[in-house]
From TrEMBL:
GO molecular function terms listed in the Swiss-Prot or TrEMBL record: aldehyde dehydrogenase (NAD+) activity
Pfam families hit by this protein: Epimerase
Species per Swiss-Prot/TrEMBL record: Kribbella pratensis
SUPFAM superfamilies found in the cross-reference section: NAD(P)-binding Rossmann-fold domains (SSF51735)
Protein name (record): Nucleoside-diphosphate-sugar epimerase
InterPro entries associated with the record: Epimerase_deHydtase, NAD(P)-bd_dom_sf, NAD(P)-dependent_oxidoreduct
Taxonomy, superkingdom: Bacteria
Domain NAD-dependent epimerase/dehydratase residues, every copy: 3-83
Length: 293
């Protein structure tokens, strides 16, 4: 099938594009910049220029394709206002994509984070949070899943806190970036809080499986590591970069501070059983060994 994809040049998106092209699908990819367009074309995708705010472009891309995978997000976490603007932009884009697919029976796969549940790993049956810093994303995803009642084979792939490849990406990547800037490999609280993780290449396989096979209105977990202690993540980063490892104030991480400090392990048992998904690439702590000082 021809798949329209947003965010196809990012860490996850580039892996998804490669997975789709390698398994007989064609890709029409949204590209906001010349660099993104060039990378996507080199990978073998057709390109349409625009961003998430270009609603007519999104509508056209979805209308002429056999399915849609949405991955794009502003990723501006510099302030609560910037994060809220990114959430609002994504919500409008998802609404337009959904309208373009209504009544068609075509697949629409969107992305969210895994939920967190006090005292145990979250599962695919747990609801997404609808309040807090990213509650708007949860509401938008629920809207996409609700399109199952309007003739769309909608599904959500819930991503863990760190999606990594060659030691970069996700929350662990942000810890690395801040460590380089401050000279300290830090962690909030006592560091025993756990973050789930997955290799980008394994996540890409799951996106393809969901696109091809998932029933309408379903959610899936792209989780390999159920939960790595943040202190252990910071310890590998500190050792690889030659920096001290210390607890730092939650405020160090801006609007993401409360999320960084939360224990949020997650399970993918149902996803593996139902779709036959089997992660094969290095886990997070092993992949972080690729970091260079």
């Amino acid at each position: 099938m021809q798949v329209f994809i947003t965010g196809g040049s990012g860490l996850i998106g580039s892996a998804v594009v490669g997975e789709l092209l390698g398994n007989g699908h064609s890709v029409l990819a949204l590209a906001r910049s010349d660099a993104s367009a060039s990378a996507l074309q080199e990978a073998g995708a057709a390109v349409v220029r625009g961003g998430l705010a270009d609603l007519d472009v999104l509508r056209s891309g979805a209308a002429e394709s056999d399915g849609v995978i949405h991955l794009a997000f502003s990723n501006d976490f510099s302030s609560p206002e910037a994060l809220a603007a990114g959430v609002a932009e994504e919500g409008a884009a998802l609404a337009v994509l959904g309208e373009a697919l209504a009544g068609s029976g075509r697949p629409f796969v969107t992305v969210s984070g895994t939920p967190w549940v006090p005292g145990r790993p979250s599962t695919e049956a747990d609801p997404l949070p609808l309040d807090g810093p990213v509650g708007g994303r949860g509401r938008s995803v629920m809207g996409v899943l609700g399109l199952a009642e309007r003739g769309v084979r909608s599904a959500a792939v819930r991503m863990p806190r760190t999606v990594h490849n060659q030691g970069t990406g996700g929350f662990a990547g942000l810890l690395t970036q801040i460590a380089r800037q401050t000279g300290v490999s830090g962690y909030p609280g006592d560091g025993t809080q756990r973050w789930p993780a997955v290799h980008a290449l394994d996540a890409a396989v799951l996106f393809r499986l969901v696109l091809e096979n998932a029933p309408a209105g379903t959610a899936w977990h792209a989780v390999d590591d159920e939960g790595d202690a943040v202190r252990d993540i910071a310890a590998v980063i500190g050792r690889r970069l030659g920096l001290p490892v210390e607890a730092v104030p939650e405020e160090t991480y801006g609007p993401l501070g409360p999320i960084f400090a939360t224990d949020q392990p997650s399970s993918s048992a149902h996803t593996r059983d139902a779709l036959g998904w089997k992660p094969e690439h290095p886990n997070l702590l092993a992949d972080l060994e690729n970091l260079q000082a």
